[in-house]
Amino acid sequence: MAVLHVSPLSSKITPKLSPCLRPHRSNSKPILCLCSSDYRAHQQHLPRLEKIVAPVHHFSSLGESIARASLLAVLSASLFLADPALAFKGGGPYGAEVTRGQDLTGKDFSGKTLIKQDFKTSILRQANFKGANLLGASFFDADLTGADLSDADLRGADFSLANVTKANLSNANMEGALATGNTSFRGSIITGADFTDVPLRDDQREYLCKVADGVNPTTGNATKDTLLCR
Questions:
Q1: What are 54-84's pLDDT values in tens digits?
Q2: Which Pfam families does this UniProt record tie to the protein (predicted)?
Q3: Alpha helices in 83-200 (DSSP H)
């Protein structure tokens, strides 16, 4: 059974084997050991971990600060490494709700700040992202059929393997977005969209050039120019 042993006079944490979940003394120095099998009993938030550490009164004032800080940091990290689901608490730093791998058909995200939001593999049919800040968001392998992405900030967003057919991308700023794999924009409205530095497949670029028109109101770039249409 793997255990973390923390010395009160050092910030070093070393793995040892021991079946204990209590403070004890070794070589006259107080040690706190916690069994890895008990991690899950204290997962999801640190207050419970504090309850484990707080009762240990053998620490010196300086040693206690170092030991407790080290122990809590390592235990918290260990929980996330042991169970990936625990590490995923939301869809992104600006959107606390879980948006990855979800059915979000028709959901309204209009005008929201969703920087680096994770929408990987989600179903986003007819979802409303009008005017949303989606800088660096991930739509990897997501279904955006019929979604409204008009006026959205999609710079650096990841549309790899995504289905963006029949979507509204009018006036969207997609500078530097990714569109690798079989990403499809078939049937989408792209009037005024900015595709600067978007790595499109030749067949997608050819198709989009046939329907491209307008100028992006934010960047001032003509859609045809950003698609490098001939």
A1: 444 444 455 555 555 554 454 444 443 333 4
A2: Pentapeptide (PF00805)
A3: 84-87
Q: Of 35, 33, 83, which Cα lies nearest the Cα of 53?
A: 33
Burial pattern 204-226, b for ≥16 Cβ within 10 A else e, equals bbebbbeebebbbeeeebbbbeb
Q: How far is CA 103 from the centre of its chain?
A: 17
Give yes or no for a contact between 8 and 67, defined as CB atoms under 8 angstroms apart.
yes
Domain residue ranges in the chain: 2-86, 89-230
Phi, psi of 139 (to 5 degrees): -115, 30
CATH 2.160.20.80 fits 89-230, yes or no: yes
Which residues, including other chains, have CB under 8 Å from residue 115's CB and lie 6 or more apart? 92, 93, 94, 133, 134, 135, 136, 137
Burial of 193 (0-12, 13-18, 19+ CB in 10 A): buried
pLDDT in tens, 1-59: 443 433 333 333 333 333 333 444 444 444 344 333 333 444 444 444 444 444 444 44
